[in-house]
Amino acid sequence: MTNISKDLMAKLNDNFAILSCSIEKKLVSRYDNTVKYLYSLPDGEYLECVVMDYKYGHTICVSTQVGCKMGCAFCASGIGGFKRQLAPSEILSQIYTAQKDLGVRISRIVLMGMGEPLDNYDNVMRFLELVSDEKGLNIGMRHISLSTSGIVPRIYDLLDRKLQLTLSVSLHAPNDAIRSSIMPVNKSWGVDELLDACRVYADETSRRISFEYAMMKGVNDTPECARELSQRLKGILCHVNLIPANEVPEKGHSRSDDNSINEFKNILEKAGLAVTVRRTLGSDINASCGQLRREHIKSQA
Ligand code: SAH
Ligand code: SF4
Fold first, then answer.
1. pTM
2. Which domains does the chain have, with CATH numbers?
3. 70-96 per-position pLDDT tens digit
């Protein structure tokens, strides 16, 4: 802009920054049009986001932190530890940058990229306000899902806001023994406390909780696990997403085979639960949580 005074320009420079993402790498899946971006940030950090082309429109999966503190045993996002929080504008910028590059309108958002959204609570809440504002991208809360590993007090805080978004909970195990062995967060808030919060959340918002369950061979995929899970989820308004786990070389777990996944699904369905086995989109482009950034950092080392 040349139509503002030098003084104002200096003031703007001193007090504000435009924290936008630049496209460092872009991968397009040969199978299903899924696009994965590796973005670089002005301070040299990297983050990733994925755009999925569904029948009902484009959905973007955004990151909320660089790295993650939660240390889940199966996830690539936390491998280099936690780097920093993302500002509301940096979460927004992932969407604007992808829309501009692809020439499409993104109509749904999932906060399921790198990072734990409820560990960056204030910035994520501000992002939600901005992205749903009619002067902004105007994406309604009903088209937004927030995924958490289970920071229970923050689930209650979220409940107080009475937002119409979908709460996804990364459960991945039916009991404390298994869950604590793969998700350290479970040592602070166990399965009972987490499911109590989910029950209250679903009752008070009348919104169905979406439980994520990554199927790992020999870890959490036995018929006993399925029966225990059915018991624990009884009476909660919910939907269970079974995800064949993505294998991450450093992490050592393997994906459950199709037979185990189907048997698991049948047991849950017989108990009256709504279950979907998630398609793995973009399987040729490492389109899951933290994998692309991990490879890029490794290749630079
Ligand atoms: N931190 C939040 C949101 C980001 S992770 C959370 O944990 O919910 C998005 C989803 O991907 C979570 O359900 C997470 O458990 C899952 N995930 C992480 N690594 C995975 C892997 N290797 N295979 C399958 N799902 C994985
Ligand atoms: Fe963090 Fe979620 Fe990955 Fe766990 S699964 S390390 S909470 S991003």
1. 0.91
2. 18-293 (3.20.20.70)
3. 999 999 888 889 999 999 999 999 999
Query: Measured in angstroms, how far is the CA atom of residue 72 from the centroid of ligand 2?
Result: 6
Phi and psi at residue 264, to the nearest 5°: -60, -45
Q: 48 forms bridges with which residues in the sheet?
A: 38
Cβ 50 vs Cβ 289: under 8 Å: no
Residue of 49, 204, 289, 295 marked active site: 289
Rounded CA separation 96/92 (Å):
7
Q: Is-catalytic flag, 289? A: yes
239 membership: H or E segment, kind and range: strand 238-244
- Active-site annotation holder among 48, 90, 116, 212: 48
3-state SS class at 77: coil
Instruction: Look up tokens 């920071």; give the residue.
Output: 151
Q: Which residues line ligand 2 (CB under 6 A)?
A: 68, 70, 72, 75, 77-78, 114-116, 149, 170, 289
Contact (Cβ atoms closer than 8 angstroms) between residue 221 and residue 202: no
For 140-183, the pLDDT digits (tens) are 999 999 999 999 999 999 999 999 999 999 999 999 999 999 99
Ligand nearest to the CA of 68: 2
Q: Which of 112, 149, 187 to mutate to test the pocket of ligand 2 (most atoms within 8 A of CB)?
A: 149
